[in-house]
Amino acid sequence: MPAADAVFQRLSSGLSLERAAWAGEVSSADWPQAAVLVALTDMPEPEVLLGRRAMHLPMHPGEVAFPGGKREAEDASPWDTALREAQEEVGLSAEGVQALGELPPLITRTGFEVHPCISRVPDVLELVVDPGEFDSLFRLPLAIFAERDLFRLESMSDGERSRMVPHYQVGDDNIWGVTAAVLALLANVAYDAGLDLQRDWKLKP
Prior knowledge:
By secondary structure, this protein is α+β, with helices and mostly antiparallel strands. It has helices at 4-14, 78-90, 177-191; strands spanning 33-41, 47-53, 64-65, 68-70, 98-102, 106-107, 113-121, 134-141, 151-157, 162-170, 173-176. It has a single domain, classed as Alpha-Beta Complex (Nucleoside Triphosphate Pyrophosphohydrolase), CATH 3.90.79.10. 19% of the residues lie in helices and 32% in strands. The longest helix is centred in the last third of the chain and has 15 residues, at 177-191.
């Protein structure tokens, strides 16, 4: 795998960084909008910050996710949303976050338009978890998401249509859905992993 500096260089050159404003008012969007902060640690083998969602949450309890959440009226851009949510959920200060780039927005099966904001953060982080959002936080090497034996696609149906959904099985954690899609897309940019999602994530499945 490439060294850390090469990984960050590939991400910087392979991703756009527009920091564009949200388009229109919150109420005028075609889909409910959200942003996530993909925080990669500045270390020889970059790690990605992930959390296990609190079990009491009504949506996606226990699932692995990035810090992030829905656009609020005061948020000028997806970066504002992602940074605000990361501060609120895990205590990650915007001061230590270096923007690397953005992935195109992905439409989830629940109809959210999710904007992934990719960043570089210090390897030593003083985080404070909001128990209302996450039960725990953990970090994994970004490089493992380029490993084909951990990646799989499963066909899922809601009774009306089927869709291909990405999964990574990492220990006891099944990382799936939009989180897995973001990690696979990043692995393709950073490590030329060649993972095929077999789905256009710009369209609602």
